[in-house]
Amino acid sequence: MLRAILSKLRIASRVGGRPDRVSILLPFLIISIGLGVLAWRSYTLSVRTEEGSKALARQYAGYAAEITASRVDAAARAEMSLVSDEWQQIEKRIDKPTFGSLGAWIAQHDWIVDAIYVPDDDPASSIYGTEAATGKSKKEVRLTREFFTATGSIRYTYSPQRLLATPTVQTAIRQQIPAKDRRAGTMPVQQAADVTLVSGESEGYRELTDGFAAVSALAPPLSSFAVRAAVRTSYGTTGWENQRVLSLWVSLLALVLLAIGALLALRGMSKEAETMKLRGALIANVSHELRTPLSMIRLGAETLKRGKLKDKERQDIEDQILREVLLLSHLVENVLDVARIQNQSTRALAFTPVHPRDLIGNLLTTYESWIRSKGFTCTVQIDETIGEQMWDRDSVSRALLNLIDNAIKYSADEKAIEVILRQTSEYIVIEVKDRGVGIGGNDLTKIFDPYYRAQFSDTTTRRGAGLGLTLVQQIVASHGGKVEVESQAGSGSTFRLMFPRDLAGDPAESASFGRPREAF
Amino acid sequence: MTLSISRIFIAAWLATGLAVAAGDDQKCHGTARECDQQIRHFLGGRRFLGATIKDRSPGLVVEFVTPEGPAEAAGLRKGDRLIACNNKSLTTASSRDFKQVLADARETGMLYMIVWRRGAYHRLRARLEPYSKEQVDKIIAAHLSQSHPSSAGGHR
Description:
Chain A has about 525 residues and is an alpha+beta fold. Chain A contains twelve helices and 15 strands. Chain A has a five-stranded mixed beta sheet, covered by helices on one side. Chain A has a four-stranded antiparallel beta sheet with strand order 2-1-4-3. Chain A has a four-stranded antiparallel beta sheet with strand order 5-8-7-6, with helices on one face.
């Protein structure tokens, strides 16, 4: 099944013509499916853990409430038996209990409100005592209790609230400190219950926003009171910090990161593919470029060998051969230079003092016949005040020649080239203007890319490898300068080579422009 | 543990508490009328036998019979040994158990007893009496005179 889908995808990618896109997206798709499965798994696990911790908290709260209730009951019973013991001690000490001793006994126990002592032998001599006048509320619940002593019996009323507030009972309510756990904080359930004494709450469990509470009633006669134990769980929250939501967030983040990665990979891939395509075009171009001059040279050479030519014809053929050889070497040089500079190879530039004026003059003199043979007129405009510059003579000449070559190649009806040498406050500028076909807006950004040729540059009419401008740019950049283009389709273009001025006096600074120059 | 500590305490507070109680008038938290009501509530439904029982472990012996009380009327005498009461054997009981029997008999007010006197068993029938109005008044008066000196005379 999967195999079938994969093969289908492969075929589709082959048919689609962009195999790289699918081949890069497929692994990412598989990874994201895996991530999705992991996210689902972690979500279900969190839910399960949450259920478990809820059950645990519920159980724990129940136990805490029940145990504390029984402890409170025991403590209250102990307190009651304690007071009866105390009274019997009094009875033993004194022959006959008096009003004062009963009052003292009541005063001793804060929670006893009043009491009557009925002696067995003479019921008429019963004593009644109440607690001393205090500001305590009279609206408290009162309970009555009776106990028998050796010589009589005591009946007393007490306030259960005050009884439960006595230190002995409070000790029973107080929660014991949970044992120190080294993994404290990892448990979703807190190891302590908040235990409180409440009244008027019905027995049973209830769910809180962040945990569980259990209420367990006390034994009679204190059954109107209950112990409430609340256990908090860290899972109870519903906000974004909830564990299961958190796991979803993390998975989402992973997916987003993955998508970004896929996008970047795709972009890099497409760029690579484009370069590959251009390189393929270069090979076609170069071979074409090589073949034409070669066949021209061969033709000329064959004609010469056959002999019997007039002097003029002979000279024409020699000129032609020379021209083609020049062209050929120019092409080869271009290709090699681009490759070298691109690979940052050892062939560095040799910076020597150069007069830009002389450089342009020499170049134009050398190629004048060629330019003229193409039917072009070349006007030169030179600022004579510009002094010597630390340039690499050969490469700057090559850059300029490339520009002129381009101007000739992409010419229109008006065959005029203008070369201008001028200076600004920061740059020495060599400008090459033509009135040719110009460059469209889309191409303008790409013309410096290696192997790129503008849309109209079909190889049949315009010869070239798509390396000229790349080389120009690289040369100028290695001098620390930049290339500017001004052009509109159909109205000619202007290339400006801008070399920084201050390069002249300070050769040390030129080292900072990136290209190594210590090779010689 | 708590019990033993508190026993030590008792000695301490007995000394202080009794001294204080002897010197001062014990002021009630309520008014005289409230105290009156509370005493009547305590004694209401409560009946008395009119005899002191001594715990001679094992066994219970009548130590003192209140004159003109229900016990005397039933023929209970000093020195009688209680064998059973209301279908409950008292031969090995404590005085507390007997009082529980009395408390249980509050509803009917009847007490059927078997006592042992001078080598013979006697069957006795006592009717527990509620507190008479005079007795209750006496108890109230005693409390009022102790605790409410200002209102002792003017209450009724």
